[in-house]
């Protein structure tokens, strides 16, 4: 097959490509409106209800009302994104008489994303932007790798995680985070400890009570508690350097942080395994312990505990060696501690930390006047990356994260899998073959049942 330029138009109609199940653009959009609104409502009902329950208190009437309004607004946002994408495809085909590589997915996806994100609450836009940037950056890397432009390195996600976390912990040690409230700093405070924090943060009484409860929660038996108390007395007998902010010895500070985070990580993974494997456990109760204390269950605990242990150990070592406490010590401490990420090398987590550090760095430089403040920057960044994802789903889905393909498949009622892309093979990406391979791998059905006649 002759390969043509990506900017050359393919004279395919929207009936052949966008909605081959109906010869009406209006019917195609109407059918998509029905299925996408139902799927969006299902997704956001689950998200908002879980968020409400995680607050740990009985919701008041205003909380329930806010939750309902949030569900409806977010449902409208996601539904608009799906329906507008299909509509813009048909509109652009009418204007240009066919599809190019850009108008075949990227441009309509960008326009639909701008239209949709303006409906969503401003407080949720940054979170959505970080999510699509995370998934899209992975797709962009895979696209470049498939073209021989880049090459992945072993454990590259650990390097990304280490550098990005070192940036955030440097801000944390400098106290710059106090002017920019963000939940990621709460997580870092929890992992490395409040004594590593810079600035003048006033600790709340609730914080002290919470740290004590976390320690007591994992002392299951009296025997373990006695052994633990003896170990605590032994560790506290060592010295503490004058430059260290923690109250007890450095040895106790280091081992206590590692043990506490290991226990929490083990507990989280163990509970998740129990919940997900209830049917198997009911049939074979003897496998409960082997399921909880497997090597796989230890991974999160090893990462959290190892990170806290190595970070605190390195920080105390540097303070003792140089008889000083500098924010810059956070950088080598974090880079060494990031070795623990090898036990749980999650690409999603690494990319999230990378984009979060870029976001907070950009905001800080903007606040200080080093960068101009761009109106609706979040809207455009979100739209650019969402368009990348729709482009990948259309032309090269094997470079798209499997979970995102399944999300688009559900949102479109399976329509994304039956859009006819055979005419796009002239651009040399083997699009139709990629689609068939993706459908096979993800086990997403193509036998779509259209509601309301041919909608």
Overall description:
With 455 residues, this protein is an all-alpha fold. The protein has two domains: 206 residues, no CATH class; 189 residues, no CATH class. It has 19 helices and no strands. Helix 2 runs antiparallel to helix 3 and helix 4 runs antiparallel to helix 16. The radius of gyration is 26 Å and the shape is elongated. The C terminus is likely disordered.
Q: What is the general shape?
A: elongated
Give helix % range. Answer: 55-70%
Unreliable stretches covering 5 or more consecutive residues: 202-206, 217-221, 451-455
> In percent, how much strand structure appears in the residues?
under 5%
Taken together, the total number of domains comes to 2
Main sheet properties:
none
- Strand count: 0
Q: Could you say which structural class the secondary elements and strand pairing correspond to?
A: mainly alpha
Question: How much is the radius of gyration in Å?
Answer: 26 Å
Order of helices and strands: HHHHHHHHHHHHHHHHHHH
- First-to-last CA distance: 34 Å
- The DSSP helix count reads 19
Instruction: Give the averaged pLDDT, no decimals.
Output: 85
Task: Annotate the secondary structure layout.
Layout: H1 14-17, H2 25-53, H3 61-96, H4 102-117, H5 122-146, H6 156-174, H7 183-192, H8 205-217, H9 222-236, H10 250-276, H11 278-283, H12 288-292, H13 298-322, H14 330-337, H15 347-367, H16 377-395, H17 402-411, H18 415-418, H19 431-442
